[in-house]
Amino acid sequence: MKIELPRKVLMIINNLQLHGYEAFAVGGCVRDSILARRPEDWDITTSAKPEEIKKLFRKTVDTGIEHGTVTVLLGKDSYEVTTYRVDGAYEDNRHPSEVRFTTRLEEDLRRRDFTINAMAYNDEVRLVDVFGGMQDLNHHRIRCVGDPEERFSEDALRILRAVRFSAQLNFPIEENTAAAVKKLAPTLKNISAERIRTELVKLLISAHPERIQDAYLLGITKVILPEWDAMVGVTQNTPHHKYDVADHTLHALKNIKRDKVLRFTMLFHDMGKPAAKTTDENGRDHFKGHALVSEEMARKIMRRLKFDNETIKMVTKLVCYHDYRVEATPQNVRRAMNRIGVELFPYYLAVRMADVKAQSPYKRRKKIENIVEMRRIYREVLRNSECVTLRQLAVGGRELMALGMKPGRELGSMLSELLEYVIDDPARNTKENLCKYVKEKLDL
């Protein structure tokens, strides 16, 4: 098998070989190349020790030298070059207590997580596949290198990575590997929130986010996202729904594009339903106020997983407004743009569409027509530069103070009132008209 290595990767491998060392591209880049996918990055493994690597390249950074990793800088690009190594005992389900360098590639590949990630390649030797990675790619399965319990005991994060790779590649997890996942899932409690978040993001923005259900079946969500487990089996006896809350969420996730904010909004949008659920005397379920409960849960979970503030802000706002439905009139759309945010509004429309498509056929056409019309009006508002924010008002605080108003709460309230006045009719947004309105209000 021939893999086209990037020119700079080839340069690094050739330079190491020229000085008597072995060197191979290794891991995910080899896997992705075989699958005709574009690798995100290229990792190189070598028999050369870190000090020897540093002598052969002009610019290097000691990014993980205690574990044998040196980053080689070539122009604007960087490549991790790691010495063949054998990991010592793992004491915290994450990090080896010691690392021992080795001269044998097979020993280095043996310590890796899954067979599909334990292949190496260079143009001289071609593909090195000691543990059946190629066979597992052909059979579409995620399988650990060696004993799965041993691999997961070494690094508990691999448990979540198994499901993540399953979602990215749409490969089922091999039987023994899945059994080990189920047995050792509780050890994920020892993994940092940041690491959990990284894997969860990759899972959810994959082509198959619905495989989060596998994480539930294998006992993973019970540890990292127990709020998901609470949604499973919560029925929705209402004409608008045909799935329970968890299944509806799975369909909603599949209905929306691969964007972190959108996928996490769909993950959380109905998470408050179990707590908000009531059933009337006719047996019909109601979920009044679930959007606000979901919003608060989303905020709590995202903080727990150490998300950045901007992502939390966007997702929680979309969760709050995911069920905001109004008649598609210009006034209503302008007001919604003001409340939700001009830039966030297309996200809101996408969230509503994904939600509707995951519901029952009841009134679906009418709901979709409403969303489509709101989108049309939204674009028209943008095209006409109609005022929907305070920044777009023809007057500001300076003009109001010139009319005699003092800085403070009263002035802020007047600006908000003017904005509502203009949202109702954009033609009113002139300095003359708004000053006249204020004078009448203040009896000037």
Provide a concise account of the structure shown:
The protein has 444 residues and is of the alpha+beta class.
Keywords:
7-stranded mixed beta sheet; 444 residues; two-stranded antiparallel sheet; 11 strands; globular; single chain; alpha+beta; 51% helix
What does this structure look like?
The chain is of the alpha+beta class. 51% of the residues lie in helices and 9% in strands. The protein has 23 helices and eleven strands. It has helices at 7-18, 28-34, 50-56, 105-110, 133-138, 148-154, 157-169, 175-184, 193-204, 212-217, 221-224, 226-231, 245-254, 260-268, 273-276, 290-304, 309-321, 330-340, 345-357, 364-383, 397-402, 409-424, 431-442, and strands spanning 23-26, 43-46, 60-64, 69-74, 77-83, 85-87, 99-101, 120-122, 126-128, 278-279, 285-286. It has a seven-stranded mixed β-sheet with strand order 3-4-5-2-1-8-9. A two-stranded antiparallel sheet has the order 6-7. A hairpin with a 5-residue loop joins strand 10 and strand 11 (285-286). Helix 13 (245-254) packs across helix 19 (345-357) and helix 18 (330-340) crosses helix 20 (364-383). The longest helix has 20 residues, at 364-383. The protein is globular. The mean pLDDT is 96.
Q: What Rg do the Cα atoms give?
A: 28 Å
Residues in β-strands, percent: 5-15%
Cα end-to-end separation: 85 Å
Overall SS class:
alpha+beta
- How are the strands ordered across the major sheet? 3-4-5-2-1-8-9
Q: Helical residue percent?
A: 40-55%
Low-confidence spans:
none
Oligomeric state as shown: single chain
**Average residue-wise pLDDT:** 96
Shape: globular
Number of beta strands:
11
Largest sheet: 7 strands, mixed
Secondary structure tally, helices? 23
